[in-house]
Amino acid sequence: MHTDTGSPTTADASPPEATQDRNAFMRLIGAMQVPAATGRARIHLPHLREDLLNQLPAAHGGVLMTLLDAVMSRAAGALPEAPSQTAVTVEMSSRFHRPGQGELYADGWVVQASRSLCSCAAQITDAQGTLVATAQGTFKYWLKPTELEKK
Q1: pLDDT band at 70 (very low <50, low <70, confident <90, very high)
Q2: pTM of the full structure
């Protein structure tokens, strides 16, 4: 399957038209899916509400990890040859480089994929393109119908 070792460039920092997210939790935090290239995914969090902040105040680590996890899972499902559009997390490692403030952009891409597992990487940048956090993870393609697919 698809292999990619490159991260997104800062040239694609401004998001195209965002859409309301299909996932209720992502809607709860105010995140929106943004169109991205094949095998990639992009999520935009336009506003960090007070209830999403830590004591600094900056984005709570759980918010950053949520964005990283979701964008990698979606990148896995965005491959044309993916056996499913849904990929669940097997393991994930994240690094926080600096406090996330203001608008945040999460970009995820596939590093390597097989028929059942997919290795992905992701990064979060702020509106100025400054790196906030990075992650890598392994995702398993979910082959059973999900609640969204049953509707």
Answers
A1: very high
A2: 0.85
